[in-house]
Amino acid sequence: MYDPTRLHPLAAGLSFLKMLKEWIIPLVLFLLFGPGSPEGMVWVSFAPFIFVLLLGGYGILHWYRFTYHIEGDELKIEHGVFVRKKRYIPKKRIQSIDYTQGIFHRAFDVVKINIETAGGPGGAEASLSAVRKTDADQLALALREEKKASDDELLLETKREEASYTYRLSLKDLLLAASTSGGIGVALPLIGTLSSQFDTFLPDDFYVEAFNWLSGFSWIVIAVIATLSVFIAWFASFVGVILKYANFQINKFEDRIVISRGLLEKRELTLPLQRIQGLRVVESIFRQPFGFSTVHVESAGGAGPEMGVSAMLFPFIKRSKINDELAEILERYHIPEEKMVPLPKRAMRRYILRNAAPVLFLIPLFWFVPTSLWFLLFIPLPILVMWGILDFKDSKWLIDGQSFYIQTRTLSRCLLITEKRRMQDFEIKQSIFQKRHDLMTMKTAILSGGVGKVFQLKDIEFGRWKEVCGWFSRKHRRE
Amino acid sequence: MRLEPSNQIAPKALTVWRIYGAFNSLFFILLSIGSIVLVIMTPVPMWVSIVTIVVTALLTYLFVLMLPAIRHRVWRYEVREFEIELKFGLLIIRRVLIPMVRVQHVDTKQGPILRHYDLSTVTISTAATTHEIPALDRETADQVRDYISQMARVTEEDV
After folding, report:
1. If you placed Cys at B114, which of A14, A172, A250, B119 could pair as Cys (CB 3.0 to 4.6 Å)?
2. Distance from CA of A455 to the nearest CA of B (A)
């Protein structure tokens, strides 16, 4: 530990697997559609295997060249096969040390260590992909100990380790979340099956060749296949959610929250509170009728495996319970209690038009589809109009003290909760069409994992621009 | 909150935009010339060429005369102590507020045409977005850049 140490040899295998994962598609494509083995160039057909061997060799070299050790009050990591890279991390700056374990890790009783430092986005961080558990504990101890000895923050440090509140996802909620997760996953095969039925109505020279085999089956068989494929898709997403969100738990500490989850692979994500930029409450159409929603948290890139992604805060929660939990975990944020500002009635027409506009693309189909089936082409229109009305009704906004809320709907209903000091900019804009109806669009961007995420709400009352701009406008430094 | 940000961009910006517009319409002018050649050399009917020329004339008018003038008339900016305000647009009028505390860095840049007219573009970047003041005379641009960078530095705050 105080001399340059290599990782557990599993690290070589892991980096090999990681590279293989990136190359697997080109490799399979090459094997299937590649040039085969041209005359006199038999080696070409072996190329993929040689390539895989090279990747394996690279993995081993990578492991061989990767060393870490503690020297003085720094953790020193040196790595790189072709280009030598050195990273020195002062112990004092280390903010947290997390372990994660994948299935391979478990087999060898090793862990992956993630080390986070108090840097901004792109600040130093490091991970040691495979270290024997006992060594890891020693290393973590050594890194912490030094800190305690040198720091007078000792008291604070020990107090921090105790979570002040813990949120757990109950088994019932996990099962419900898993069974209602497959929004698109369920819908897609359904649509696929239906559209393959349409194709049999099309003129003979149209795709019919490809779907010819369908006619060999009776309707009952087709119906059974359809039901089965829907069920399989649903089951796949069911299992996926269980694997991902089993043991889901949020631990609240004084200055950060730690989200851990996973059945086979345990994942842990640390979010410093001051880096949290906003929340999104998403209600999918499968969950909204039952009052359930998911809550995502947008963070300005902390560190850890999920850095740069907006992370799940509550995978499945009753909307009415969100405020109770938030009061314990993120007390600055809550769902607005007062009524949000709806859009003016005259905006509804624009929402309907915008949603229904794609129908225009169906017009050319009148040419192909026989007259007796034209009614099918009219089905999407009322659905899209309804959708537009729903979209209009769910579009709302609110400014309340320092908090800013925008609610919109695409497929799911989505509520953004953020604060003035998190908004990177603020924009109002008005097209000539909006001008005619005295409407405008409100737009803002917040930081989410190192990049900007834009939120906008169309067609709000133009008369309120002075109020909203005045709210965002800074007359004083700290506002 | 004032009705309009106070400063207009450089008058010479209009000239620059007209030049950009001319470059854009060059393609259509070449197309019209091509159509005349076609009418003379091949049995393509006369009206094809006439339509092309009329459309080209309209587009050139739009690109070179009308749109730059509107753009220039609309463009306003104002750099205040704690925020920057921009207003611009053609069909969609946009109005942007950028708090000083959010500004990460500010640059000026010049392309060859801008340099010829001694103009600069000021680019203001926040952590999430980028905004531009397209054409200020170089001296103003440098002043604006230095002022913003100074004010942004004073108001250091966590992201």
Report:
1. B119
2. 12
